[in-house]
């Protein structure tokens, strides 16, 4: 029951509207350009909470996280316990590393600073 409560609280925190932040600190949830499905905030929450593990075509989702202590990770996670008892997403060291990984792996999803977005990835959701 404790795990379910933690997951519920975390999902709710991820679904709450984020306070407005300057454009340079806004985040973009990005996928490979070949991924055309639309994703909402609830879909993204389920992916990063590991409740949704496969794309619609059956391929495994590769969720990418930033390293602890970064502003991007803090803005995205908001709760360091949301992975209790769940194997967390892969951690990469920079927005550039996340963008390169997503651009190279059709199954990857990650978050980067909105200012880092280019044609190598597709933005499915903006967190401003």
Structural features, described:
The protein has a 5-stranded mixed sheet with strand order 3-2-4-1-5, sandwiched between helices. It is globular and about 35 Å long. It is of the alpha/beta class. The protein is 30% helix and 20% strand. The termini are far apart. α3 (71-77) links the parallel β2 (62-66) and β3 (90-92). It has helices at 2-15, 41-48, 71-77, 95-104; strands at residues 27-31, 62-66, 90-92, 108-113, 122-127.
Oligomer classification: single chain
Report the principal-axis shape: globular
* Major β-sheet annotation: 5 strands, mixed
Q: Uncertain segments of ≥5 residues (pLDDT<50)?
A: 18-24
* Gyration radius from CA atoms, angstroms: 14 Å
Structural class computed from helices and strand pairing? alpha/beta
**Average predicted local confidence, pLDDT:** 77
How many β strands by DSSP? Answer: 5
Q: Span from first to last CA?
A: 33 Å
Task: Give the number of helices.
Answer: 4
